[in-house]
Amino acid sequence: MEKSEGGESSEASVSAAVATASQHVAVDFPAKKLARQLDFTVFGGQSPAAVTAVTEQIQPLAMTSGPQIVPVKLTPLPRPQLQPQQHMVLMPMKQTAAPPTHPSIRPPKPESPRARPRQSASELKDGTPKKQKQCNCKHSRCLKLYCECFASGIYCDGCNCNNCHNNVENEPARREAVEATLERNPHAFRPKIASSPHGARDNTEETGDGLVLAKHNKGCHCKKSGCLKKYCECFQANILCSENCKCMDCKNFEGSEERQALFHGDHANNMAYLQQAANAAITGAIGSSGYGSPPVNKKRKGQELFFGLANKDPVHRQGQLLQGNHMKSSVLPSLSSIPGPCVGNTATVGPSKFTYRSLLADLIQPQDLKELCSVLVVYSGEAAKMLADEKDASQKQAEGQTEASLASSTQERVNLKDSGTEKDILDCSSSGDQGEKICMEESSLDGADVSKRRPMSPGTLALMCDESDTMFAASVASPNDLATLSCNTSSQLPRGQGMTETYAEQERIVLTKFRDCLNRLITLGEIKETKCSKMARGADSVDQKDMIGNGFTTTETRNQHDSFNNGVSKSALPQPRTTQLFSAVVATANNNALPKVHRPDENGDVNPKI
DNA sequence: GAGTTTGAAACT
DNA sequence: CAGTTTCAAACTC
Q1: Residue spans with biased composition (Low complexity) (predicted)?
Q2: What pLDDT band is residue A527 in, cutting at 50, 70 and 90?
Q3: How far is A376 from A518, CA to CA, in rounded Å?
Q4: Which residue among A12, A103, A125, A187 is least packed, with the fewest CB closer than 10 Å?
Q5: Cβ contacts of residue A419 below 8 Å, gap of 6+?
């Protein structure tokens, strides 16, 4: 099996192909144009650097450091398997209407960020993909959307491609390709399958008819496959064709006899689609932009051409209409603007009428985010503190004061702070809002230290402001403290040199912790999916209704959550649900021993590759 | 495994 | 934007 990833050892051996491909190059990558104006809803800025930012965000997670997290698949792999509906996290951040999807935050090669439909049959045989998707590109250098890996925003790894440039060694070319691709289609790396925002709400993923709400953003254009073969992207993604499609002779609609015959006759297929749906769910959870097309109920050429308005296919039309209506009713601003947990993107298994929503749907709550923010703020504060102490020590040293006593006292302070930090954070993460508040008060307002502290970075201050709103609003006990904090931090802002360093350090730590958190979040989703898949496979008798909503009851979800957190946190005691997720982050943070973290070369990258 | 079919992506 | 070509996956034999 020829491997083209990595060192490109195979490159030399594919002379002919290379020659051909080389000719391609000029064509494939026209002179780099000016950076497009990218829509970074979140980041706002549209500087020329935006493109670079985007392309970097599309970097395969394989580049990121840290432990390889087992992908969504059931089988642990060295890297994630390529699955269409998974890991939107890798989606480029470029966005227009919808909020940016999540940046790549995890190392392993992810499932397709954009819900790429194609999936090798072998993966679906039993619903449990056995191996990672490997492309077989020969002429595209894996730098075009033809390449599944590239389209998924991941590096080729273990593929059978020739002259592969979708790897670290060819990052510049790859980046150009990404830019070119985005130039052509700003949505190129976004999920093709967008679930209805409707799915954001529980129990609304499915109409009474069991209609699938997820739909292909662009729609398919099938002519001969009847949309019942995997050539059809809708079919492959296990969704019904929608008004977005321009297919002919479509049989991929609710009520289609052909479709039902296809599915109901093959239980294994159902399981496969269960898995597929799970994949879709996770993709949706993490990154589906949900940028659904306008709920305009476009007529599908094929249908009308073949059946005419009289419509010999009332069920289909009805389904379409229902879908359209559904979409229409869900056009309202929804949680889809808030990437993540509560966005119950759905990819429904049509035939079995299961409705799936994000595997993370029950894992994250707004409360969690709040908590995470507080933890990050604490980290930021601690970082500033530590740096300040360090600098003070250095200064005093320079001033010729007694080295021994200074060093020891500083160390003591550091140690004290260390233990305090750990404790604070643990408290924060383990005691919910109350702990959160206390934590903030202790870490931010601990007496004399406040006046000495280095200022927060602008970004951190912004975060603090938000935190202040949410966390301190109710804090009648110390309104003055809060005012003092704000005053202190802001007034100290541009104090001398080294502030930049402090900012950088604060931000680095916060980003690192945030990355850790996201990684764990993904892992949670994966664990959940794994369990889901096991259930799906092992329990034919499972009441299908139980599968609705990720196939887990609340208890199930809770148990998973608990088991996961028990594995990473120090406490096996029941904790408030909202604190469990981030206790994992805290645990990681503690392992990093914050005081040691303030060396840029420690604890991961300064700029976590996301 | 080779050849064919298919439809998305790329190109004109 | 429509038509054509290229491409790689899906499919068939």
Answers
A1: 7-20
A2: confident
A3: 13
A4: A12
A5: none
